[in-house]
Design a protein that fits this description.
heterodimer; A: mainly beta; three-stranded mixed beta sheet; 4 strands; B: alpha/beta; six-stranded mixed beta sheet
Chain lengths: ~70, ~500
Amino acid sequence: MRVFVDGREVFLTPGMKVRHALIQLGLEPREHALLLRDRWGNLVGLDGALRDGDELFLHAEPAEKDPQEDPTK
Amino acid sequence: MFRAFWRLSLVIGILLWSSFSWGEPKELRIIHFNDFHGFARPHRPLGFSEEMGGAAWIASLAEDLRGEKPTLFLAAGDMIHGDNWANLFKGESVIRLLNAMRIDAMVLGNHEFDFGRGVLRQRIKEANFPILGANVVGMEGIRRHVVKEVGKVRVGIIGVITPETPLATHPRNVLGLKFLNPEEVLVRELEAIPKDVDIVVVLSHCGYSKDREIASRVRGIHVIVGGHSHTRLDEPVQIGDTIIVQAWEHGKTLGVLDLLVDGGKILSWKGGLRDIMPSRWQPDPMAMGIVERYSRQISRLLDTVVGVAEVDLDGENVRDRETNFGNLVADLLREVAGAHVALVNGGSIRRSIPRGPVTLDSIYSALPFDNYVVTLKIRGKELWEALEHGVNGKGGGRFPQVSGMRITYCPQGEPGKRLREVRVGMELLEMDNTYLLATNDFLAAGGDGYSSFVQGLEEGSKIENLGGALVGGSITFSDPGRWVRELLAEKVKERGILSPSLEGRIVEACP
């Protein structure tokens, strides 16, 4: 399947998760655990499942916004 | 006579109308969690200053919330597999915990299949609550929907799971089962559910983006309690007439959704997530007792001797050269996956195991990562590139440990041109031949810079699980439900005695 992290294309095998998308980009998953959001701006866990075409955002702004809170507070 | 009957009918009609239209709105609270993955003990996630989670604190909060209003407690799948606290007991510990928490219903997640169907059947029998899976055909003991009376509210609950489950667990775990399209099944199930329910809740282990699609396409669902994507939905989201909730992962939050229901409609709702912070309230004693009992068993299990090493298993030099421990792990992957060759990164082995009795703890400490086996269909050229990349990383975690092949390289050679020869079995590697390569999921995803493995994924076409085997793409085997350390522990138990040796699989030679 093909997913996108900040617009960058990532290819994963079925069953692979959010952490694998970061690994492929050479990123240490644990360091980005609290930065990673879906296309609606929601925080997603490193073991979250992905679907073909999913978009994740590390630094770029998600296109849409669901209600948010800062989980560290 | 006719007039009397007419009057009586009118009176009954007025009474019925007034009871429906002027009845008191009814309160319902739904509390929920998902993707627990057996994280029963508090843990400190990176970026947080204090510990979060802990089943005994979830149970305690759940009891408080129950005391306030009629409450339904739901679990949205992937509950019994993941952490050692769950895996060492094949999920039995989690079911006992969920029983103690008085869960009202749970939907199957894809990881519920990870211990095999026989074990799952047993777990379903042990559960004091219904386990749902309306779109799963052939699995014994599960139900498509249930109706629960909570206070004055009748709630219909339908469970659906991701149809991609056959690709997200070991293929044999779902042999003979069918996973149907959840949307189509929901349309059918909404017809089958009794008409006198006040609201319909879908327990979905399909992921948030799919839940949004379901909410926009399938009418008649009041609430979707989701899981699978580990999404932290700080507040419920409404799509059309459907409210969607999801509570992150690993028991770090408990979702709370308060509803006011009348006449088959939700009049108002309010909800959010409650962070589980063990320092801030007292744990539930019964749940705590279960967590501690299994934790003590884990300590005993980890001290158990599972075999004997006749030689030291070298985990110190795995980043520099062939080691016997590296050979053991690479052989294990190749054997499990039925592959031609295997390659693991030296960095996946973190410790040596000294000669003598081998405990489970020593294996788990040596292979601490939650890595699983993946088999890639790969061309000789890509395998060469991967090995070249590996040996160029001598001294680092990417240095390869291999099985089924012998490689010769010159460490002093020009970077990128150090590999001199690769033999698969006795034959020289053919660049255009296709080989089955077993590796771990970290490298298969391109970790440690193994980008040549990803090329196969780019070209991969649609993969299917046919008769327990993955076909149609660049992946022929994937078992996300068993960590490599668990496979090694099983192998050590099976063999009893370990004596892996150096076999000249990685040879340094310069012209």
